[in-house]
Specification:
The complex is a heterodimer of chains A (203) and B (505). Chain A is mostly helical and 203 residues long. Chain A has 10 helices and 2 strands; from the N terminus they run H-H-E-E-H-H-H-H-H-H-H-H. Chain A has one domain. Chain A has a two-stranded antiparallel ribbon with strand order 1-2. Chain B has one domain: Alkaline Phosphatase, subunit A. Helices cover 30% and strands 14% of the residues of chain B. The N and C termini of chain B lie far apart (58 Å). Classes of the chains: A mainly alpha (203), B alpha/beta (505). The interface between A and B is large, with 75 and 70 residues.
């Protein structure tokens, strides 16, 4: 694992250097404030339904469009309802969210995010784009910067920091050698990164 | 930015041992080498729940009327309905009824079909419970009334044998005390029960991308995850402020190695019970389903209608593919009706009620029928699981069944008396009962304890010799200990009573 992390970092840095020929875009970010570790250390998970509402709003989709397993069952409200922190008191007797996250919960959230971000990406190619129009027109550093800013604003409801933008740009470098469709994979991937980050999943 | 480092399971155990001051020679549960060895030589625990109050004298210890001084006012059966076997203490009651309690549906059951095979590897141990509250009784059936730091049987089996398993402890029965978590906060996270609410669709949550219309290649998804986990998240203020919050630490933990193990085994396919059909079009989404799917569908054909069948099918696959070392399943409280059933002369078709509401607890309205249908379900499920596991090679010439123990867990027993001559009546809860255990790891065809056929009350046994001891009542902690002993779980330092009579010598 340590080796793969090291390699990834090396790859990101190397690709970052290789991309240095592109012009630097104007960056509209807030400086990262100092952040001391909380002494309370209390965070709570959003239930799948709450997170899904946030995701749908951010991606300008209806909730039922986010993800359907096998095209038939709503991922959040049906297929993975309990896994994603939901309740089902009437039939299953689960009248409060499970105390601990289930081992498959991160995967379930990722599936929804991959599906929803993919839907948004495809829609942006069909009509008036909401999120990914800039990179779909031209995959430049500036376009990716614009998309990254919007992703953070829409999904995390805050201004992006330079660290956020650098991290999402780093994804482009990481995907370059392995992706068959870099524009799509980066767009959906960056969306998934932000949508399934702990900041999006917990409060 | 911070670089996170999740402890391995081995490191966790080493830390736990250090925390508790364990030294060489103490419990194998605190020795990572011993746990690694146990993982190679596992035992499997199936907790098959008779939720609502499975009464042992309506199952393997049924009383013939001729054996009782007052048969008309005790829960006894006409002699001709009770099937027995030479050399076996067990019985089965083949019976039928015009109504299922207040439900206008006739039924017939033939538990002798299953007992004919099961009795050879069945042990019944008597006990007296400490509560007639459902939730409490269910919980105490798996903790022995908090006998060992509030740990559950499933957690202890998962701890000892599941160190290498992707999801060692799976709970397929939501909403019951049988699937409660224990109260020991030091328990390794991997041994904690993982709830599966819907056996049909749950496997779809075992891969981040397979089965999605526009999924991603594993390499691309791995790069996305890595960038999120290693770069994006650590740079956010949220993570820096709450980096030590327990919920985030837990999230980071399960997002690491456990996720890699799950996806690496292609469980999204291997655990899919359902076959491809228009309402479940798995092939349209690039999935194949389980290679063992047909076998489990044949064994549990009502898997789309009866949750117990769906649970049992998935339970077998979880054990077969070594995903888990313990699974917990059982009939739900739902009224389950088979619309395709035909025949009979009542309002609803014969045997159309696959599960009465509240399962065994339907005994409040109709004791005889609820217990009859309930035991039929329990025994049929155990029989099918046993057959599947017997056919499954462990890899060393033994079968999976050779390492498996099925514990039929119940909340408590039921009232022993009935209105004079009644053939159907309602019963309340009762602390006196017995447990049925099916396994090659326990002495078969064996009753530990005994039954007073004049009162319907069971009595206990000598924990060492197994000799019946009228007047003695077995405590929950004793049966809990006996189950762990049969499963060869290291209980040293636990303070639990020794119960060698409950394991095969």
């Amino acid at each position: 694992m340590l080796h793969s992390k090291t390699l990834l970092w090396g790859l990101v840095l190397a690709l970052g250097a290789a991309c240095s020929g592109e012009s630097e875009p104007d960056v509209k970010v807030t400086p990262l404030p100092d952040a001391a570790a909380s002494r309370v250390e209390r965070v709570l998970p959003k239930s799948g339904e709450v997170w899904g509402r946030d995701l749908a709003a951010a991606l300008a989709l209806d909730e039922f469009e986010l993800c359907r397993e096998l095209g038939t069952e709503d991922c959040i409200r049906e297929a993975h309802r309990i896994t994603m922190g939901g309740m089902e008191p009437e039939r299953l007797g689960i009248d409060e969210p499970l105390e601990n996250a289930l081992v498959s919960a991160p995967i379930a959230f990722e599936r929804v995010a991959i599906s929803a971000c993919g839907v948004r990406y495809d829609r942006d190619g069909e009509g008036t784009p909401v999120l990914f129009g800039a990179v779909r027109s031209s995959d430049t550093l500036q376009a990716r910067q614009e998309v990254s800013e919007n992703l953070v604003r829409r999904l995390l409801a805050r201004q992006p920091t330079q660290v956020d933008l650098d991290a999402l740009e780093g994804l482009h470098g990481a995907l370059s050698p392995i992706s068959d469709d870099l524009v799509r994979d980066w767009s959906v991937g960056a969306c998934v990164v932000v949508a399934t980050s702990t900041e999006a999943l917990f409060y | 930015m911070t670089q996170r480092s999740q402890p391995t399971r081995r490191q966790f155990v080493q830390g736990l041992a250090a925390l508790t001051g364990a030294t060489a020679g103490t419990s194998a549960l605190l020795n990572s080498d011993a746990l690694a060895q146990s993982a190679k030589d596992p035992r499997f625990l199936i907790v098959l729940c008779a939720g609502g109050g499975g009464s042992i004298i309506d199952g393997p210890l049924a009383i013939r009327a001729s054996e009782c001084a007052t048969p008309d006012v005790l829960n006894t059966f006409p002699d001709e309905q009770v099937v027995g076997w030479d050399g076996s203490p067990f019985r089965a009651v083949d019976q039928e009824g015009a109504d299922l309690g207040p439900i206008p549906a006739s039924y017939s059951v033939t538990p002798s079909t299953y007992m004919e095979r099961l009795r050879h590897e069945m042990m019944v141990a008597t006990w007296t419970r400490t509560s007639v509250n459902h939730a409490i009784g269910q919980r105490r059936s798996i903790t022995g009334n908090e006998a060992w730091k509030g740990r559950t049987l499933q957690e202890l089996v998962a701890w000892q044998y599941g160190a290498e398993a992707p999801i060692p402890n799976v709970h397929l029965l939501p909403g019951f005390g049988f699937t409660d978590h224990g109260t020991d906060a030091t328990l390794p996270i991997w041994s904690r029960g993982q709830l599966v609410a819907n056996p049909s669709t749950w496997p779809l949550s075992l891969d981040g991308s397979k089965g999605l219309k526009n999924g991603m290649s594993p390499d691309v998804l791995a790069a996305i995850r890595s960038q999120r986990n290693e770069v994006f998240e650590p740079g956010t203020r949220f993570e820096r402020v709450f980096q030590k919050a327990p919920r985030l630490l837990e999230w980071h933990e399960i997002r690491g190695t456990p996720q890699e193990r799950i996806e690496g085994l292609d469980l999204i396919n291997k655990l899919l019970v359902r076959s491809n059909d228009p309402s479940f079009p798995i092939t349209d989404f690039g999935l194949e389903g389980s290679p063992a799917g047909q076998a489990v569908r044949d064994a549990f054909p009502n898997y789309q209608l009866d949750p117990l069948h769906a649970q049992a099918a998935l339970a077998f696959l979880l054990l077969k593919y070594r995903v888990s070392v313990t699974v917990t399943l059982g009939a739900t409280s739902d009224f389950i009706f088979d619309e395709d059933a035909t025949g009979g002369s009542n309002i609803l078709a014969h045997n159309s009620v696959l599960n009465p509401p509240l399962a065994f607890d339907s005994s409040h309205q109709g004791h005889r029928s609820a217990q009859a249908v309930g035991w039929q379900k329990v025994l049929r499920t155990a029989d099918s699981l046993m057959a599947l596991l017997k056919a499954e090679d462990f890899g060393d010439g033994t079968s999976m069944w050779d390492r498996t123990l099925i514990y039929v867990a119940s909340d408590f027993g039921r009232e022993k008396r009935r209105p004079e001559g009644a053939t159907e009546w309602g019963t309340s809860h009762h602390v006196n009962n017995g447990v049925a255990i099916l396994s090659p790891l326990v002495p078969g065809n064996t009753l530990r304890g005994g039954l007073d056929s004049d009162t319907g009350l069971t009595f206990g046994f000598d924990p060492v010799t197994g000799s019946p001891e009228p007047g003695r009542e077995m405590e929950e902690a004793e049966i809990f200990s006996g189950l762990l002993g049969a499963l060869n779980v290291d209980t040293s330092g636990s303070g639990l009573p020794g119960m060698p009579a409950m394991r095969k010598s």
